[in-house]
């Protein structure tokens, strides 16, 4: 029972994932689910809808405004008799030319574009976060697969060591070392499975998924790594980053708005033209009511020209402030372009470093794997001591951990570079 207990511990972290209703997602499915369910993203979509209404409202300012009024009143003064009176009027006003209205429509349309880029910026950040968690998970899945083999091998070694110990072929201390190593391997496996469970929980948080749902991710085959090694040129990567990064588009949209605001601020210098029309009638008392309405029926139409002469230099102040804002927007654009260039160069260098590290750790891992296989055979034949075997096993485990970390660091860095370049098809999918 003492030896059975650590084995039972292996299955505790995965008890909740053993049910039949486990949801299995690929990376694209994880991203799509997050986009469909993220509350923050839904809020940003509502902001877009609100801004569309602002555009619609600005365009409706071109439509005429129509109002009607109907009233009845009672008058009494001194010894005069009580008199009744009433009127009905219909008024319409329309703006024939108003520069402020025209500029406002364009402003709202530019604001809508900026809002869309804000959503795209959020999407990119969310995509990268999901990729990071997804890569962590598939890396932990691969580590667990190797750790299961290591635990199985150490269990066989412990069983053989127990037989040798009973036969007197090895010392008790050697047998205890084998037992301690096996317990360590089991503990490492439990820790990795707990880590995987926590990573899956973090992924569900990013996806806005119910944490009680059972989620598993589909690990792609290793063949796709071959294609990921082929990096584009650095110049092409930078060019694509400048074209596709939402941060750059957002800054350019802000610059467009600032340029337009300089024009819009000058609207205070420009005359506006409007037209108005009205019809109405009235009556006094109710004698000959119909005749009164007919005789009092009136119509009017007029065109008015509003010419700004002096507004306490308010328009001039607005123009100057708009020009300052434009200068700031131009600086922000230049700064953002520099930041994106730096980001693309750093991401590219990270990929190159990750590829080199992956190649080195792959060779190291393969070498230690062959060495351990040879030492296992020597130990089985009694040609080496337990200490020699365990030393080689620890070297192999260290090389294995380095290999897996380098492999999935490379996958992560290459995928992030693809996102920055605006590639819709990720190499890890």
SSE order and pairing:
Layout lengths: L3 H6 L13 E3 L1 H11 L1 H21 L5 E11 L7 E15 L1 H69 L4 H35 L8 E3 L6 H5 L5 H11 L1 H20 L6 E13 L4 H7 L2 E9 L7 H67 L5 H35 L9
Parallel strand pairs: 1-4
Antiparallel strand pairs: 2-3, 3-5, 5-6
Describe this structure in words.
With 429 residues, the protein is α+β, with helices and mostly antiparallel strands. It contains eleven helices and six strands. A four-stranded antiparallel β-sheet has the order 2-3-5-6, with helices on one face. Strand 2 (65-75) and strand 3 (83-97) form a beta hairpin. Helix 4 (99-167) packs antiparallel against helix 11 (386-420). It is elongated.
What gap, in angstroms, lies between the N and C termini? 44 Å
Q: Tell me the structural class.
A: alpha+beta
Computed CA radius of gyration, to the nearest angstrom: 38 Å
Unreliable stretches (pLDDT < 50, length at least 5) are: 1-19
Strand order of the largest sheet: 2-3-5-6
Helix content: 55-70%
**Oligomer state of the chains in this structure:** single chain
Number of helices: 11
In round numbers, the mean pLDDT is 88
The backbone outline, from C-alpha atoms, is elongated
H-E string: HEHHEEHHEHHHEHEHH
State the total count of DSSP E strands: 6
Major sheet details: 4 strands, antiparallel
Strand content: 5-15%
């Amino acid at each position: 029972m003492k030896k059975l207990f650590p084995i039972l511990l292996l299955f505790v972290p995965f008890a909740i994932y053993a049910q039949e209703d486990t949801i299995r997602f690929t990376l694209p499915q994880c991203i799509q689910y997050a986009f469909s369910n993220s509350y923050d993203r839904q809020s940003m979509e509502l902001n877009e809808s609100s801004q569309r209404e602002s555009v619609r409202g600005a365009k409706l300012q071109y439509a005429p405004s129509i109002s009607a009024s109907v009233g009845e009143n009672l008058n009494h003064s001194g010894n005069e008799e009580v008199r009744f009176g009433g009127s009905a009027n219909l008024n319409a006003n329309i703006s024939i030319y108003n520069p402020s209205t025209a500029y406002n429509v364009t402003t709202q349309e530019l604001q809508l574009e900026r809002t869309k880029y804000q959503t795209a910026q959020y999407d990119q950040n969310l995509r990268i976060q999901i990729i990071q968690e997804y890569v962590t998970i598939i890396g932990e899945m691969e580590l667990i697969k190797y750790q299961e083999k290591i635990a199985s091998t150490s269990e066989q070694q412990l069983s053989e060591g127990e037989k040798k110990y009973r036969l007197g072929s090895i010392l008790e201390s050697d047998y205890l070392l084998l037992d301690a190593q096996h317990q360590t391997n089991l503990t490492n496996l439990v820790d990795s499975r707990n880590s995987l469970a926590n990573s899956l929980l973090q992924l569900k948080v990013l996806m806005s998924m119910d944490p009680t749902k059972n989620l598993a991710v589909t690990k792609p085959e290793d063949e796709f790594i071959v294609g990921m090694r082929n990096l584009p040129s650095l110049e092409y990567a930078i060019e694509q980053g400048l074209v596709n990064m939402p941060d750059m588009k957002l800054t350019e949209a802000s610059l467009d708005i600032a340029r337009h605001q300089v024009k819009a601020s000058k609207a205070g210098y420009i005359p506006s033209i409007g037209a108005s029309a009205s019809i109405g009638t009235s009556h006094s008392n109710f004698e000959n009511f119909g005749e009164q309405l007919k005789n009092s029926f009136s119509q009017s139409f007029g065109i008015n020209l509003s010419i700004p002469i002096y507004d306490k230099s308010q328009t001039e102040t607005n123009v100057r402030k708009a020009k300052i804002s434009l200068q700031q927007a131009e600086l922000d654009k230049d700064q953002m372009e520099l930041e994106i260039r730096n980001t693309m160069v750093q991401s590219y260098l990270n990929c190159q470093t990750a590829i080199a590290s992956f190649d080195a750790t792959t060779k190291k891992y393969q070498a230690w794997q062959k060495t351990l296989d040879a030492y296992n055979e020597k130990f089985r034949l009694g040609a080496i001591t337990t200490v020699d075997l365990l030393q080689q096993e620890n070297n192999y485990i260290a090389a294995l951990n380095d290999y897996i970390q380098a492999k999935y660091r490379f996958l992560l860095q290459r995928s992030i570079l693809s996102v920055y370049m605006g590639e819709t098809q990720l190499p890890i999918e």
